[in-house]
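Bug #77: duplicate submission created two jobs. Keeping one. Sequence:
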Amino acid sequence: MAVSFDLKGKVAIVTGCSTGLGQGICLGMAEAGAKVVGVGMSDPSNTAKQIAAMGGEFLWVKADLTSIDPIQGILDQTIEHFGALNILVNNAGIIRREDSINFTEKDWDDVMNLNLKTVFFFCQAAAKQFLKQGTGGKIINIASMLSYQGGIRVPSYTSSKSGLLGLTRLLACEWAKDNINVNGIAPGYMDTNNTEALRNDPERSAAILGRIPADRWGLPSDIAGPAVFLASSASDYVNGFTLAVDGGWLAR
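Kept job's structure:
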């Protein structure tokens, strides 16, 4: 059964690769044997160093995903360097916090463009590559607890992640027949840059922690296993599902 989770010979693109969940996913993919293409604007040297230490292969493509312009170039560099694409993880995302009554158009557009628009067109480009190769492929979209819940003070983030849940289902319905699996992961409250403001607010942090049955904030390493599962042949009959990795938050 272990061979079902083996990613040797596979090539994975992971957006937002330098820190947090993206780094955890990159390390998990590399540990399972995949060659990793990390995409983002921040220096990924820490991620690259850890992958090199385990004998893995890592390529960084510097790109600003707030627009869809870099997508084809990222794919071209991936194919040129590694010869194929098998896995896409849409992890890059941003959040803006403000009362809805004061929320600006820029904060709406910035979040929606990166978290939803770019994700759709990256999925589309990856699917075209999978069809060209005739290999099928795996797409993993990183959603959120706010794909299921409303939250407060993050209207564009909640909208983008709710939209991503629906988009993941739609793409799975269209592409499952082509051996392309599209699924999602909805992280709970994780110890990452995106939640720094919450963790630094004693009242909010205590309220959040008090509701998590696991009694801790999640770690990037907690996402690695589910990501490897959804990227591997072990999940070949899993389509259109978004897996909560939340320490039991939604079960409470």
